[in-house]
Amino acid sequence: MWERPAAAESTVPHGLAKTVAAALPGLWYCLHLPASLADLVDVDIWKLKAAQSLRLDHNILLVPIDCFDEDLGRHLQHHHPVVTVCPDELLDEARQRASALGFVLPTTPYSQLSDATLTAQWRAIHEHFIPELPTLAGEVSLTRRLDLAPLTLPHRRLARQMGWSTAELAAQDMSVSKAFTQVFHGQTRLAALARLEREGASPSEAARRFLQTAREEADRLQVPVALGLPGTAPAYTRNAYDGEVRRRTGPQPAVSPDDTWSVALHERPDHMVERAAIEFAVTHEAVASSGLGLMLPTVPPDAFVILAELERHFLTPHSSAAVRRLLTRLNDAAQPLWSKELAAAIQRASHLTVFSNFPLGLLTMPGDSAPLCARVPVAYRPLEPLTRAVQHQVFAPPRISLNHTIKVLVAECIPLSDPVGRISREGWRIARENVAPEAATLTIIQAETLTLEALQQSVAEHRPDILVISAHGKMVGNMAALVIGDAPHLDLGLDRMPPVVMLSACHVAPRGSGAVAITDLLLREGALAVLGTQVPVEVTRNATLMIRFMVYLAEENAKPGQFATILDLWHHVQKSNAVNDILDGSPSLRAWATSTTINGNSVIREFSSRASGRLRLPHVYEDTERVLGEIADEQGQGKRVRNWFRRPGYVPESLFYVFAGRPDRIHLSSLGWQAEQARPGR
Length: 682
Description:
By secondary structure, this protein is of the alpha/beta class. It is built from 28 helices and 18 strands.
């Protein structure tokens, strides 16, 4: 907890309130306590692996001392309050309030945070809640190197369950390479043992097959990965801070051996306090998913400058060649971000959670030809202001399962007199027709919401699971807003925010200039996941994406099993739209796409039958061109079609969408069903 500030003092440049910074020693300590009762006892190995899809967060309440009262007590009625951690100067008051609210353990001041206290509290929690079950063996101790904690703390918790030694990870001079090797080896062992357990192998058979199984699992290993990528756009810092303040800021390396835990870490210089806050968020996420995390160096300022140039380029008639050049320059500017550990983590990532204001998914990993977001699902957690990022991270929202009849509300905010409005309505009419076979599981409601009041009323009336807002995006100064009626809006004022909001609008999530974006602000209003666009998008191409998303969503809801979360489904739509990006590159390509092949199919239908199993995600555009080129060769048009790929060319527009928030927490089947699928014998 912390004292409510009399004045808004914040760190520079990410903006962490000093009062929230004062809570960092306690927040870090809480990450070392049990997240659930399962942490206290021996758990089947297959359950440990299955838990990676469940996100078992620590439930941490970050509240000022004067809010630690009866109102909070009513919230705690549905929970089991365990322990209060506070600065020493608040101990007497916090102790009284915690006692009145029924906390199990004595209030712990910062001066008592230690390995001994941590061990005692693990023991006391076990004795209070599950005294009849055997205690899990193994030591618990505080993490010292915060820069390596996103890697080492999730592994140490896993190792305690598995009975592995983690003594080497405690070394002060531990390198990130050595830590990563241990963590990767641990994840491989977990996957191999979980597979053998699911297959019902006897102990002797498991011992005989382990090495071969581990080699196989290493090749196909997938784990959740969280990344911390600090950095602010130069345009933002110029507007927010004067020259003297800006001179006090500078780039930070990925690893800093002096970045260690202490009860006074909040008293360090701004850049070290911000490091600790970002590292906490990344570690919290990695622990919750039983995965791994990495801190990256600060985004080079030039990368933001080039990104802003790229986003501005889309505001005018843009060319494929210019976009390619800008993406190449962006990759060159961001080259310092890449390390062998980052590349190895991404190659094994089931999905990425990126804590950053920079769209890492637009970069192309060395050796790939397509941007990162084509390779792996990416969810973004914005870092500005850092106060809000920390508050959002400690709040563990309930996981949502859209395994019932899904209600989608399409709010049409563009007048019918506008050509974009007409095309949008036609696109959603087609979407409704395409999902009609699954209408029992997914309903699309179109509503005319030409004023903010009409939008608010429609959402209140229909209470949708997914809200799609079809509107124009508009930059107002350094703010990316939605135009509803005749005015731009950043605050929608919805009484009940749907869990998923999809903004079918142009440039509502720009990143290059550090703009205040409605995509991020909707998260503050209560949305769990918000889809937005970095650049102006062409309305018919956007309609294609939305139609495909709804069709796959309806099919998944009717027959679950292909996509675990809404993020997984969106990524499938995004990556598989490469063929549409290419064929929409010019009128000539669009006309050719409908021509007839020697097999009597249209080009696009022939592509669908031939492409299966041939499109590598790191090279999805390159491979799509190859398959299309084969079809063109058979028609005797190979040279002409390949020339169209380059002149006038195409833009990978599908990749300029960002999914912010927690789309990985929105499941497309019940957690019970998912657990059943992971059970041995299935």
